[in-house]
Design goal:
Layout (H helix, E strand, L loop, with lengths): L2 H28 L2 E2 H8 L3 H13 L3 E4 L13 E4 L4 E8 L3 E8 L4 E8 L7 H19 L4 E9 L2 E3 L4 E5 L4 E4 L1 H9 L5 E5 H12 L8 E5 L5 E6 L2 E2 L15
Parallel strand pairs: 4-7, 7-11
Antiparallel strand pairs: 1-3, 2-3, 4-5, 5-6, 8-9, 9-10, 12-13, 13-14
Helix pairs in contact: 4-5
């Protein structure tokens, strides 16, 4: 095989993966959509959508259903429904007074959730990581018999370097310069991507995508549980500022 053919093949596979990702993003964010809606939202052709949905269906990630007739001419486009329990993400939260873990399926369905209270005291990161791993495994172990874990997301009440989950500062937890990403990766031993972010920034994204601000262009989110924090979204994009201080109102006062 020539180098040119290899390059063309690589480009074709890159395009295919990008198209698959575009469909997954829409189904995860919006839930069941018709093929026609997917064509409109992704810009892909009908034939491309049909072929890619066929791949997802063969893998058990989606099902297709007949749409309810609307009384208009023509056959209604089939509805593509994500299968929530085939692939899951593990969501973790480290708050000042609690730890939480949840399993989120394709389409945003929360399949399991558990939260435990903890004293409002400064506790070592090693203790928190160990406790969080036990909590996560309590819902993760039974779920892995039927589902594949594809990633971990962690919300923490602190200033975080997103590239590796390094916590610069978490005053209410008593942490400074903590390699939380590395420690959680080792404790969970899942071999999947792990992303850590500030809890207020993630709260803003949640409200923007699925909550009160869905459909808006801009959002200012304020968190006042313990201390004051915030998240900012401008033109649909999170505005985190330098080193993650963008919405941290408590550090500006």
């Amino acid at each position: 095989m020539t180098a040119r053919r290899i390059l063309v093949g690589q480009r074709s596979e890159t395009v295919r993966r990008a198209n698959l990702a575009a469909i997954v993003r829409e189904l995860h964010a919006r839930g069941p959509l018709s093929r026609s809606e997917l064509v409109a939202r992704t810009g892909l052709t009908r034939s491309a959508i049909r072929g890619l949905i066929g791949e997802f269906a063969a893998a058990g990630l989606v099902t297709e259903e007949r749409a309810t007739p609307l009384g208009t001419p023509g056959r209604p486009s089939p509805v593509v429904r994500p299968e929530a329990e085939r692939v899951i993400a593990l969501a973790l939260e480290i708050s000042v007074d609690s730890l939480a873990a949840a399993l989120v399926g394709l389409g945003g369905t929360i399949l399991a959730e558990v939260r435990v209270d903890r004293p409002r005291a400064h506790v070592s990161v090693e203790t928190i990581v160990a406790d969080l791993a036990v909590l996560a495994n309590s819902i993760l172990v039974p779920a892995r018999r039927r589902a594949a874990v594809i990633g971990v997301g962690v919300a923490v009440a602190g200033i975080v370097r997103r590239s590796d989950g390094f916590v610069w500062m978490a005053p209410n937890l008593g942490w400074r310069d903590v390699p939380l990403g590395r420690q959680l990766t080792e404790a969970l031993a899942l071999s999947v991507p792990l992303d850590i972010a500030n809890e207020a920034d993630l709260g803003a994204i949640a409200e923007f995508r699925r909550g009160a601000a869905r459909g808006a262009d801009h959002l200012l989110y304020v968190s006042g549980d313990v201390g004051v924090g915030g998240g900012i979204i401008v033109d649909g994009r999170p505005l985190t500022g330098v080193a993650g201080y963008g919405g941290e109102i408590g550090h500006m006062a």
